[in-house]
Amino acid sequence: MLILITVVLLNVWAIPAENVLTPNINILEEINKIVDLEKRIKSMETEMERLKTEKEVPKVAFSASLLTTFGPQSVGPFHNGLHTLIYKHVFLNFGSNYDPNTGIFTAPVKGVYVFTVFSKAIGNHERAVTAGLFKNDQHIVSTHGHQADGFISSSNGVSLLLDEGDKMKVNLYPGQWIFDNGEHHHSTFSGHLLFAM
């Protein structure tokens, strides 16, 4: 209301003295202009608050490969159910939401996230490379490759809506194996927050 009174006074002072008492001044029109101005100011304040909130959204991104040591090595096979893979060589962990001790990523905020899994293995008649991306112990997508010899690679990716606290991990299926080389980093698990909700 103080803004309204100030603007009216400023408008009155800007009017030549001879026009003050003439019917050329439309007070209602001037008040409507002031009301419109107040609405625009309120809209700008709301937008500024929204932009401040957007700045507070955490930056979340991680990428890791299986091995921290140089040299080739296969992980698996395991025969007692699903085996959570622990990607120990961390390239990036913005927000520290990926745990290299457990292999689990925990979503810090509700939002849309993107995940990719790359798997490599040595060809073998008896086993393949089959690794699944899991959200809170629910299977989402898998990588799979099987051949008798040579190297095989498989990859997969997905965008998912996660709630705060949801957990993502990669499980190796029973009887399967996966290969990595600590120098070349063939098998990786990566993810990032695309946007918060």
Automatic annotation (TrEMBL):
Residues 55-197 form the C1q domain. It comes from the Eukaryota. Residues 27-54 form a coiled coil. Its main location: secreted. It holds the Pfam family C1q. One of its GO terms (cellular component) is extracellular region. Keywords: Coiled coil, Secreted, Signal. It is found in: Secreted. Residues 1-17 form the signal peptide. This is Complement C1q-like protein 3.
